[in-house]
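Page 42, continued from yesterday. The earlier attempt failed because a stray header line got pasted into the input along with the sequence. Redoing it now with the clean sequence only.
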Amino acid sequence: MKNLAIKVLMLFILCFSILTIGCGGGSSDDPAIGTEPHSDPSKSETKQLVSKRVTQSQNINETYGNLSIAIPNGAVGSDYNLEILQTLNSKENFPWLSDFEQISDLYTINISRTDSTKEPLLENPGTIKLTANNDYPTNQYYIGKRNDGKWFLLRPESSTPSSLSFKTHTFSDWVLLKKKQKSAIYNAPIITASPSALLTNGSQGTFKNNLEIKICTPYEGGSSSGKLILQSRANAFFTVKVNSGKLSTASIKHEIDFSTLGQPETLGELATYTAIINLEDKVKSEMPDFIILSAYYSDKEGISYINQAKVTFNVGQEEKPDIKAPSILSSEPANGSKAKIALDDSVSIVFSEEMDTNVTP
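This time it went through. C-alpha cells are written below.
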C-alpha cells in the first residue's frame, strides 16, 4: 500500500510539470531550455577597443570605428599606457539636451604615464577625429568633452559634412553632437597669449616681460561666468601673481575667475578679459617648461564651453653689450691717396680708441 502511494505521488508531480510547461511556465528564451539570451539594443554596453603600452618615441595614429586618434611622439614626456573604451548605445545626460542631439557612441580615452602620473598633460597636443554616420551641415557639429564630471563644448579645428577634428592637451570622455536648430553660433572662448616667454641673459637671467593673456567671450552684460586655469605637469609646482593680486601658493594648477580680472573690454557682442601674469624678476627655475591655459565659459543658456592654448618658458640668447666699432681719425698715407707705396714704406692709422694689445687675432 505504501509503494502504491509513492507511485501515485510521482505520477502526479510528473503530470503537473508537463501541464506547467505547456501552459507557459517555461520559455524558449530560457538558457536552461532554449537559445542563449541576446543583448538588449536599448541598453548601453562598454567594450575595450585598445589597451597597450606606448614608448615615448612612438607616434600614435590609429582609427577605431568612428574614432581616430593621433598623439605625437614625446608629447607625454615618458612611456605611457593607452586605453580606449567605447560605450555603445550611450545616452549621456547632458544639461542641454533640448539644443543638441548625441550622434555618436561615448569614447573614453585614458592615458597614464608609467611613473603612475594619471591623465598627464600633453606638451604637444593630440588630435581627435569623430565621424558621423550621416552628413550634416558643418556649422551644426560640436564635440562634447567631459572634464571633472562636467560636459563642455569644444571648438573644432576642422570639419567636413561627416566628421569633426580638434586638438587637445588632455583626454577624457568624448561624444559627437549635432545642434538641433539649423543656425548655430559657437560661443567658445578664444585665448590669445604669447606662445613663449623669454628669459634674458641665458638660464641664470630673469624673464624679460610679463605674460599677457586675453580671453574673448560673447558679451552678455556684466561679468561672464567663466574661469582661466593655468596647469603644469605633476610635480612642476609654481606660483603666480595675476594683475595686482596677491602671490598664490605653489601648485600645479591655478584657477582664476573672470570676475577677478575687472571689467572686460567690450566691442559689439564680444568681451575681452585680460590677465597679466607677473614674470618680471622671476628666474627659469621658478616656472615649469610649459603650462596649458584652459578657458571655461558658460553662457546664459547654461551651455559650457572650453578652449586650450600652450605657453612655453624658453631660455633666450644671452644679451650682448652694444659695442660700437672705433672710427678712423687719420691715416698716413691719407685715405684716397694715389701715391705709390714701396714694400719697405710704413703705413699708420690712428683710431678713436686705443687698441687692446693683449688680444691676438
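Notes: Confidence is low (pLDDT under 50) at residues 6-41.
Reminder to self: strip header lines before submitting.
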